Amino acid sequence: MFYILLGIIFNFLSVCLGAFGAHFLKKRLTEYEFTIFHTGVEYQIFHGLALILIGILYTQSDLPKPDLKIAALCAVFGIVLFSGSLYGLALTKIKWLGAITPIGGLLFLASWFMLGLAVYKNL
After folding, report:
1. What pLDDT is stored for residue 89 in this prediction?
2. Cα–Cα distance measured from residue 45 to residue 93, given in angstroms and rounded to the nearest whole number
3. Distance of alpha carbon 84 from alpha carbon 10, whole angstroms
4. How far apart are CA 20 and CA 58, in angstroms?
5. What angle do CA 2, 73, 104 make, to 5 degrees?
6. Which of 38, 52, 70, 104 is the most buried (most CB within 10 A)?
7. What is this structure's pTM?
8. Nearest to 49 by CA among 72, 82, 77
9. pLDDT digits (tens, 9 = 90+) for 73-108
10. What pLDDT is attached to residue 33?
11. What pLDDT is attached to residue 15?
12. How far is CA 60 from the centre of its chain?
């Protein structure tokens, strides 16, 4: 249930950040900065939904729990690093934050890989 709750929280925050971006930041950021911010929101909501899926599978399936736990942790840290670095880059213009984004992307890939591995082990 914890992963489901985390997914819900991340998605709630995605909607808040999306609205904040659309109604407040759009006039204050360049088009490029706004696109960066928007990409962070999109990836956060997609991976928040993935966390909800992982949480449901964790509680309702026979899939290997350790694999699902790793998938969930990778998704959480992927959101924080990927989306968080994009928010920071767009809002502060601190360029080195862009170097953190690929780490979050790799964590997203690891999350999907571990979810796939869990399903494969259960075939």
Report:
1. 97
2. 23
3. 12
4. 33
5. 135
6. 104
7. 0.95
8. 72
9. 999 999 999 999 999 999 999 999 999 999 999 999
10. 97
11. 98
12. 22
The full DSSP string for 27-53 is TTS-HHHHHHHHHHHHHHHHHHHHHHH
How far, in Å, CA of 74 to CA of 107, rounded? 5
Average pLDDT, the chain: 97
Burial class (CB in 10 A: 0-12, 13-18, 19+), 93: exposed
CA distance 59 to 31: 42
Which tens digits make up the pLDDT trace of 101-122? 999 999 999 999 999 999 999 9
Question: Looking at this protein, which amino acid is placed at residue 43?
Answer: Y
Report the distance separating Cα 73 and Cα 111, nearest Å. 8
What pLDDT, on the 0 to 100 scale, is given for residue 87?
Answer: 98
Cα 78 to Cα 116: distance, rounded to the nearest angstrom? 17
Write out the two tokens for 95: 């360029």
| CA-to-CA separations, 93 to 25, 98, 102, in angstroms, rounded | 14, 10, 17
Alpha carbon distance 90, 108 (integer Å): 21
